[in-house]
């Protein structure tokens, strides 16, 4: 079994008190904490390797370039991409999705075209596509879900027959915790010749990812949700697709030749990486991957599942509680409301008891509209959390509910 104490020792931020109470950090779906090895790797880069990468002939530039490209290969291996050139470094999931929406806009989206998303998407996987199709008087098609937060795959296939240009779907909902059957959904879309984007922001830290097995055309993720620094993430794309799509931004590094008459663009993946990259964060991302690989991923999944089941079982005892998202296949988060209590008020009092949870619409307002609520309280778990912390959290919720009734 995982040695949780040894793991927690690598996260000193957890060893503190807030409002005189030991910190219980259950806001991991928003961002995870960073282990010492990640913090030290980024610090070490700025102490000993800091330099702009590529094209420099001096020692520091070559050393930094080699480290950066090694990090790219590490990411490729981690998600089982065929080759490193299929990995584009970005600032995270949001930039990756904006990159794709902009590139598809310029490549193949025409008047009246459609894009297909689901009813549970984060704004980052909704608004870029929405704005893109609206510029072309097109339509954003939406796969509905039932009251348990499970997608309607019959309706999904019906919408595929309307021939959207792209399908873009969340692997795991950041509100509901629903694990969508993305491999099946990719296969269904490919039968109609439609490319698929998977938003892996909530899955990559908790479940092994194999993009070749999923057969997705694109997979996007953020480092800060998988124990890496903020401001770094990635876009995986099949090479044949990345070759076809035009650049997202223009400037240094992404060009091949430039004249006042014409510009040609660099090879993959560099044509999508304009400007100076966040090298230190990329090395931190690589170190976070090594940290995850040092653990038994199956044990991590089982541990987080135990935390979730314990939380659901204990919270179910609270009068008036309503869980938002009750899919059979769920990942490690729980969202809920309590009748007559605003989520913000509940979260504020819970915070005073030392428990950090997220309240609000979680950048998924259409989900809240679907369930007829203003927002939820969301507790999300990570590998360093404990069953004792779950107990503390539930006691805090029960106490806050009594105070607010």
Key attributes of the depicted protein:
alpha/beta; 14 helices; globular; 17 strands; four-stranded antiparallel beta sheet; single chain; 39% helix; 405 residues; 2 domains; Aspartate Aminotransferase, domain 1
What does this protein look like?
α2 packs antiparallel against α10, α3 crosses α10 and α4 packs parallel to α5. This protein has 405 residues and is of the alpha/beta class. The model has no long low-confidence stretch (mean pLDDT 97). It is 39% helix and 16% strand. The protein has 2 domains: 132 residues, Alpha-Beta Complex (Aspartate Aminotransferase, domain 1); 255 residues, Type I PLP-dependent aspartate aminotransferase-like (Major domain) (Aspartate Aminotransferase, domain 2, 3-Layer(aba) Sandwich). It is built from 14 helices and 17 strands. The strands form 5 sheets. A 7-stranded mixed beta sheet has the order 4-10-9-8-7-5-6, sandwiched between helices. A 4-stranded antiparallel beta sheet has the order 13-14-17-16, with helices on one face. Strands 1-2 form a two-stranded antiparallel ribbon.
Task: Summarize the SSE layout with pairings.
Elements: H1 4-8, E1 17-18, E2 21-22, E3 24-25, H2 36-48, H3 59-78, E4 87-90, H4 93-107, E5 114-118, H5 127-135, E6 139-143, H6 153-160, E7 166-170, H7 182-190, E8 196-199, H8 211-214, E9 218-222, E10 233-237, H9 239-244, E11 255-258, E12 263-265, H10 279-293, H11 297-315, E13 321-323, E14 333-338, H12 343-352, E15 355-356, E16 358-360, H13 365-371, E17 376-380, H14 387-404
Parallel strand pairs: 3-15, 5-6, 5-7, 7-8, 8-9
Antiparallel strand pairs: 1-2, 4-10, 9-10, 11-12, 13-14, 14-17, 16-17
